[in-house]
Amino acid sequence: MLQEGGLKAFAGGNLGEPLSRLALNPEGYDVAVVELSSYQLESIVDAQFDVACWLNLMPDHLERYESVDAYAAAKRRLLERRRIGGVAVLNAKDSVCADAGIRLGGATRWFSRLPKSDLAGPRGACGQEDGSIIRTVKDETEVYRPTSAALIGLHGLENAAAAIECARHLDVSPEAVQRGLQSFQGLAHRLECVSEAGGVTWYNDSKATNPAAVRTALDAMSGPVVLILGGKDKGAPWDDVLAAEVELRKVLLVGAAADLLAPMFLDAERVGTIDAAVVRAAELAEAGDAVLLSPGCASYDQFNNFEERGDAFKKAVLALSESEEST
C-alpha cells in the first residue's frame, strides 16, 4: 500500500530485513514498517512510533513469561511508545487489545473482521460478509475490496483492515490502498501456497509457532486437511487446535513435541522429519484436500529458524511434484 502510494518503505525487524540495515541508511526511506517481538519490546528505550498496530494477543512464549498477562504487558509497551500525534490501530474483537486501547487512551483507530463492532463501526475498518471492508471516519465511509488470492480466511480480511487503517493514517490515498489490496502477493511461510497438484493444495505456514496460529490456519481451510505439527513446544495450550471445526484426515507429528502431541489427537502418526511428513502426506491426501504445515511449535529442535523449516518443506514438496511429473 505504501509503495503504491509513492512512498519508499522499509519492511523489517522481527520480519525480513534486520533493523541494522535501516540504521545504516535511515535517509533512504520515507517510512519504516517494523515488526517487533515481545522480546524486542521489553528492551526499547527511545523508540517512538507514528502508528502502533497491535493485531491480537495469542498465548505464546510461555517458556519465557510466567503468564499470558506478563506476555501481554510486554506487548503493551508498543502502545506506550506512541509518538505525540501518533495513533494506535487495534483489534476491536481482541479483548486484551481493546482493553489496552481503552485504558491507555489517546488517538485510536480500530479494525474488525466482522461487520458489527461498537468500536470499529464508527471509528475504524470492518470486514463485511461479501468480503469487502468499510472504513468509517466521522460520517464518511470508504469501501475497499481485498481481491488478492493471498488474503485467504477471515484473518486475511482482518489483517487487510488493519493495514488500511495504518496506511490511511500515513495519508496514503484510498486509490493507492485499493491497488495494494489487489497486488499483495502474500508473505513466505505464512499460509503460503506452495503447490497445487492432483487436486491437493500444499500450504507452508511454518511461521505458525504457537497453537493459536495453527487454529487460525485451520479456520481458513475449506476442506479436509492433512496437518503437519510439531517442533519445540513453547508451553501454550492446545485447546484451540483441538476445538477446530475442520476434518483432519491425519495429523503427522515431527520433532521433539511428538510425544506431547500424540495423545491429543486420534490416529496421530509420528513421522519424525519434514521430509518424511511430505512423503506420508502425499500418500494420504485426496483430491480436494489441503496439506498444511502449521507446526504450532518453534523450529529449534531441528532447524535454525522457522524460515529454514519452511524452506525445507517447500523443497520437499516441489521435489515430490517434479518426481510425479517425470513418471
Describe it.
This protein is an alpha/beta fold. It has two domains: 9-183, 3-Layer(aba) Sandwich (UDP-N-acetylmuramoyl-L-alanine:D-glutamate ligase); 192-326, Protein-Tyrosine Phosphatase, Chain A, CATH 3.90.190.20. The chain contains twelve helices and 14 strands. It has a six-stranded mixed sheet with strand order 3-4-5-6-7-8, with helices on both faces. A six-stranded mixed sheet has the order 9-10-14-11-12-13. The longest helix has 21 residues, at 306-326. Pfam families: Mur_ligase_C (PF02875), Mur_ligase_M (PF08245). Its main location: cytoplasm. One of its GO terms (cellular component) is cytoplasm. GO terms for molecular function: ATP binding; UDP-N-acetylmuramoylalanine-D-glutamate ligase activity. Residues 189-295 form the Mur ligase C-terminal domain.
What CATH architecture of the largest domain do you see?
A: 3-Layer(aba) Sandwich
Order of H and E elements: EHEHEHEHEHEEEHHEEHEHEHEHEH
Total beta strand runs: 14
Assembly annotation? single chain
Give the rounded overall mean pLDDT. Answer: 95
SS class? alpha/beta
Query: What is the level 1 CATH name of the largest domain?
Result: Alpha Beta
CATH topology tier name of the largest domain:
UDP-N-acetylmuramoyl-L-alanine:D-glutamate ligase
Q: Give the neighbour order of strands across the main sheet.
A: 3-4-5-6-7-8
Total domains: 2
Q: Portion of residues in helices?
A: 25-40%
Tally the helices. Answer: 12
Largest sheet: 6 strands, mixed
Fourth CATH level, the homologous superfamily of the largest domain: Mur-like, catalytic domain
Shape: globular
Strand content: 15-25%
Residue stretches low in confidence (pLDDT < 50, at least 5 long) are none
Radius of gyration: 20 Å
